[in-house]
Amino acid sequence: MPVNTIKLSRRSALLSGVGAAAGLAAFTRSGPVFAQDASAPAAAGNTAFSTEPQPIYRLPHDHRLHSGPTYKHNSYNEWQYFTVLGTDKKTGDRISIFICPFRQGWSAETQSPRVPSIFAFSNLDTEEFFSANTLMAGDFTGNAGDPDSEDFSFEYTAEGDGTSVAFSYDHATETWRYWGHNSAGGGANATYEFDVTFTVQAPGYVPAAYHGLENIGWDGGGPGYRHNPETLAGLTRYIAVPRADLTGSITVGGREYDVEGEVWYEHQWGNFRNVYSSQYFWGYMRMDDGTAFTWRQYYRGNDWKDYDPGMTRFMVIHPDNTVEYAFGPSFVYTPSELWTSPMTGVTYPWNGVMTTPLGEFYFGPAFKEQESPGNVPGTAFIEGVGHIRTDGPDGPIVGTGFVELVNSNQHIAPYAFEDLPEEDIFLDFTKVNR
Fold first, then answer.
1. Phi, psi angle pair for 14, to nearest 5°
2. What local confidence, expressed as pLDDT, does residue 186 receive?
3. CATH number of the domain at 276-411, please?
């Protein structure tokens, strides 16, 4: 079968206590919700083969932040973030919120990961955009119950100079709450305050990549991509919630919004360096027919033409909540117009053509200036809302979603591998994702 006609592999992810077939990307949990079981029965009378589930994830255990020797070095990355497309109940304005607290690298001073936090807000009707990138003083602190208990819950908080971010999870109701503030505005950093709650809906938690892991790391000096699942070097574990219902409030730009909307949530963690992965196009779309899909495509070079099909992934969630995956050149985004930010001078492929297993779409921004300067000097990225159209770049809009465009390809990651010998980090594989 030609590689560009690879058939998507269907997986089901059910919001029920009945185990759903999930191939290698199995979830296990202690409670009755979101259970998935990858075990297959052995042949009758044959006891030579294991029939136990082989989980990549263990939920709700893995909703917590991760620690321990595997992650205690400078390649560590973990984030739990959500975006919401919704409305202000006071005015009906269409809005978008992006909240991303994450832990990255290792601080010798605090003996803990660094904790930056990204905030972005778009008002699609007024075309206002606000963003902030803040850094906390130390790691998250928190408390958690027994993850094997039905009443399991946890809460995390991190604070910086005039800024904070916190989130909590309640297992019994599958409810998440995020809250925080930033009073240390200035420059490109907006002041804000938010408190929002969302409840997970079907299809629940699903692996973002078809095999449960995403291979986004690169060793920076070897002949190709190398990975080690024991240390998660060059790999990430990556789960997503395609649908959750959100309510809450946010104050930004001198205005308070009473928000309701639909969330896309993701949790990703592993040990990897941002080299080729620091120039990529990620996003999700909610289509008018109830279909949703997400993708990530990686590039080399600032013209956004040299993409790496071995690193591309694509997932679609159908209206009946069944999930399908594709990879390689089954998804290709071809820029048709590059936009250079007047604020930073960074160039982005804000308009282009998406070739997907669902058909061809024309992508463009809701409005162009949705860029955030990064914490690393000289870096910046898009965190904003876009549309897809059919029948040409001026055709009817058939979907709206949130996207992230990162163009930091010229910058080597600020954290080098220091805490583990390289032979302990990587298996000696070459281009294993090809």
1. -105, 140
2. 75
3. 2.40.370.10
